[in-house]
Amino acid sequence: MSDRPLRTEEIERFERDGYLLVEDVLSPAELVTFGGAVDSAVEGRVGDDDRSLEEKTLYEQSFIQCINLWEDSLDVRRLTFNQRLGEMAASLLGADAVRIWHDQALYKEVGGRETDAHQDRPFWPIKPARQVTAWIPFDGSKRKQGAMAYVPGSHRLGLEKFVDITHTFQEPYDVLRDPLIADIEPVWVTAPPGSVVFHHSLTVHLAGANQGPDKRRVYCIIYFADGCVRRNAIPHPTVDRQQVEVDAKICGDVSPIVWPRSAEDLPPAPVGRPPKLGYT
Length: 280
Ligand SMILES: O=C(O)CCC(=O)C(=O)O
Hints:
Order of helices and strands: HEHHEHHEEEEEEEEEEHE
Helix content: 10-25%
Distance between the termini: 28 Å
Strand content: 15-25%
Number of helices: 6
Largest sheet: 7 strands, antiparallel
Shape: globular
CATH superfamily: q2cbj1_9rhob like domain
CATH topology: Jelly Rolls
Radius of gyration: 17 Å
Bound molecules: 2-oxoglutaric acid
Structural class: alpha+beta
């Protein structure tokens, strides 16, 4: 893992744009090791699901989502609790320490549909808005193969709209046409292998369909600044599993400190199990 700290100029760009591409973070050997670890953990969760893409829900057609794989596998845990990545996240949030909200594999199958444009924070009962996602494409990401696009500056405009990307309760709100951002073009980001793309929890983002020949293998780690509290009673496994009341600090064994801790000091898996499949 690169040991280069983020430059001031990169942190300022993240604050301005709400996302940041950092290249050459993971080495080719780490991509093989960590990619293999996440592949095995995903197989352990959903290996017995033999439905075709067409048989899946619209949401599942965007990606196979498995959260908190760090609980299943020590090898994945080494990635989720990697000190270099955690330190980068803390620098971007201006935090003295960061905790895990959750991690997740987002594997977009061959032929998988786009990921509808949305913000993350409306799904998450946490405040204040000091969360950042590290989006790690093990094979890199290309425009026609499930790359992400971000609406620059959309995290700073007072925009916070729930978009039902699960297509469960309502048609997803077309946030790209919201008057606050309708005149800002989303920026498509091509990420070479080894890159990490960070985005803020209020940044509007989307991903293209996977028209390539291979599964798009992405792993995300979502960090929050230590000290955040539960914002409301919206259900979410991260706070519900550790019975965090509204306005109480989120600090139980489902969301341990990621950074700083000593490199080989990995936290134990919490009692109980995360949901088998996705949760936004
Ligand atoms: O990878 C994708 O398709 C979507 C990722 C996303 O929405 C996120 O990381 O918050």
